[in-house]
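Session log. Operator J.P. requested a structure for one protein chain; no other inputs attached. Running the standard single-chain path with token output.
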Amino acid sequence: MSKVVIVGNGPAGISAALYTKRSGLDTVIIGKDNGALHKAHKIENYYGFEEPVSGDQLIHNGIEQAKRLGVSFEQDEVVGIEYGKGLLVKTTTGEEEADAVILATGTGRTTPKIAGLKEFEGKGISYCATCDGFFHRGKDVAVLGHSEYALAEAKALLPIVGSVTIVTNGATPIEKIPAEIKVITTKIEKIQGDDFVESIEFVDGSTLAISGLFVAVGVAGSSDLAKKLGASVDGKKIVVNENMQTNIPGLYAAGDCTGGMLQISKSVYEGAKAGSQVSKYLRKQANI
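Structure written below.
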């Protein structure tokens, strides 16, 4: 049986799962939390609810509906997607092989307001270790972040670069950082350089000489994961065709991560579209 991994358990991900599972596909949803919808206290503009419904209740209803159909759920954080026999979804605790992947984790994170960060994008500032680590082989680099995602990016860089330092910008880092990765928790004053990044200056006046800084704040958003496979993105928006398919075979996206109207109704529609198109794609691959 073909396997689909859906990253994100919000409206887009759940909607996609309803279609893939009912098409007979082994469907796994990986999600860490309830995302932005968790913050919605009252939702009054979504079809079918006579009274306002909370975001948490809507998520709960969707998850229970999917579970009733036999969809599997994993509460974990996805930190990367690579090529395997099909697509290999890597989490903080393991990995899942998939014949197709649907990205539905919502919009990207807010970039930290650090002087020089925007100015040096593409000039030493990167958002993808897998994509750009090669350009810094043998050199000293830093990863901005403090979570599992930052650690995953740092580990991906270790075999390529000379050294890796995680800079947390004042945040407390996770505890399981290996000894070969240095950590600086001091707040950052600015990123410095001429044509390209050369160093980080901290508020205490100290500096760290680097050839590149990889931004990995919070958790990996859909566009971050897409870029690791070479999928086309436009800013934080994943570029998809009318079938919600990226330029990478077997990789689809739905919901807020594709841009446009950031509404539940749009996410549900795109999830349904992605789920039905994945089913057609995998049937064609299997010559069914």
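Operator note: Residues 36 and 106 are 8 Å apart (CA to CA).
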